[in-house]
Design a protein that fits this description.
The protein is of the alpha+beta class and 406 residues long. Helix content is 67%, strand content 6%. The protein contains 16 helices and four strands. A four-stranded antiparallel beta sheet has the order 2-3-1-4. Helix 7 packs antiparallel against helix 8 and helix 14 packs antiparallel against helix 15. The radius of gyration is 35 Å and the shape is elongated.
């Protein structure tokens, strides 16, 4: 049975080659016409989505559980997380609060903005999340700094600071305090004023001044959860939101020069960065790949006309495949790019096999038609088997539970 099928396939391929050879110009014109129509269809119907959630079917059990979780917690889906670092806890909190308030007005590119570690709730109830020992320690620090804080709250200016220092010196004169107790505060204030006079931004922390403790790294960092408006027609769906965040940070002065660093992470930012890396190197990689393909073809064929024929068939086949794919599924996705690369590799491989065999046949027989028919008879079986194996490999996805459509 398999032998009969193989013989029939060889006969069909041989007859196709014979008819193509005898009616060469008709075949060429028909080939070019179909290529032009396919290119026209591809140009006016091209559509690609960069939504990675659509790569797998939503009917899968784990995808259904994921979607249920997303519906229950919609604020955790498709996030850009802005990480705000500063030299002091006060600066980190102020920078995060300022940036969050500014971004809340960009409703055209940002859906929601939230502070998981700040905001009104934590301002009122944050003490409930600390341990009993931490609350006692903080309370003792506040009690000890009560005179200091009282003077500053009444006059939170440089005049108030100097008045507070004056009272501290008076306490030193009356013997109510020691110079060692005032040394850290005086040193911090002196360093801050000296840095400010030099035209730089001082890293001065009242919290450190009051408690006498160096802030923990976690106290110098704040987070902002941002849900962007995604544009899946763009290679980077969150590009506009990312640009708006960076522009806002720059406009508000949240820069390293002022002691604040704003970095972006999260699923959207990481995905966009990956796509941007691919896009940035696409031109160079394409040129290098083309040169390597030309080199391989030249080493294998050593004939410019045959290499040109392989390239023309490769380009036309890629256009045919893309047009048929758009007609079948409507919208391509990120996996389609991988299949395009596979098509180029397989097309070059098949072209080399056919052309090398043709050159061998032409060397034996100087007649063009006889050489082409000999090539068809000799390669029909092997190439058909290779094509069937490749098709079986691709179609093996069909019986699985994760088709590329819903």
């Amino acid at each position: 049975m398999s032998k009969t099928v193989n013989q029939l396939a060889i006969i069909a391929i041989t007859q196709t080659v014979r008819l193509s050879t005898r009616h060469a110009w008709f075949v060429i014109l028909a080939f070019l016409l179909v290529a032009v129509l396919s290119a026209h269809y591809f140009t006016f119907h091209f559509a690609i989505t960069t939504d990675s959630n659509k790569l797998l079917s939503s009917s899968l059990p784990w995808r259904q559980q994921e979607r249920a979780l997303d519906r229950a917690f919609p604020w955790r889906v498709d996030q850009i997380v802005a990480v705000v670092d500063a030299a002091t806890p006060e600066a980190a909190e102020a920078a995060a609060d300022t940036l969050a308030n500014d971004l809340s007005h960009h409703s055209d590119v940002i859906r929601t903005v939230s502070r998981p570690d700040g905001g009104e709730f934590f301002a009122r109830n944050g003490i409930l999340f600390r341990s009993l020992d931490e609350v006692r320690r903080d309370a003792n620090d506040l009690i000890g700094a009560q005179p200091f804080l009282g003077t500053l709250s009444a006059d939170p200016t440089l005049r108030g600071v100097l008045r507070t220092l004056s009272q501290s010196i008076e306490g030193l004169r009356l013997g109510k305090t020691k110079l060692e107790d005032l040394r850290p505060a005086l040193t911090e204030i002196a360093d801050a004023l000296e840095t400010l006079s030099g035209g730089k931004y001082p890293a001065f922390s009242w919290r450190k001044l009051i408690t006498g403790r160096t802030p923990e790294p976690s106290e110098l960092r704040r987070f902002i959860n941002i849900q962007p408006v995604l544009d899946f027609d763009d290679l980077q769906p969150g590009r506009k939101a990312t640009a708006a965040i960076r522009e806002a940070a720059s406009r508000l002065g949240l820069t390293p020069e002022r002691g604040v660093k704003v970095r972006l992470t999260g699923s959207v930012a990481l995905s966009d960065e990956e796509f941007a890396t691919i896009a940035d190197g696409a031109a160079l990689n394409g040129v290098i790949t083309l040169l390597l393909v030309v080199l391989v073809l030249w080493l294998a064929l050593k004939k410019a006309r045959i290499i040109l024929a392989v390239f023309i068939n490769l380009a036309a086949g890629l256009i045919f495949t893309a047009a048929i794919g758009l007609w079948m599924v409507g919208t391509l996705n990120l996996i389609s790019v991988a299949f395009a690369v596979l098509f180029v590799g397989l097309g070059v491989d098949f072209g080399i096999q056919f052309s090398v065999r043709y050159r061998a046949e032409r060397f034996e027989s100087h007649d063009l038609e006889d050489a082409l028919l000999g090539t068809a008879k000799g390669l029909a079986g092997p190439l058909l088997l290779a094509a069937a194996s490749i098709a079986a490999g691709f179609y093996s996805f069909l019986p699985t539970a994760c088709p590329n459509w819903d």
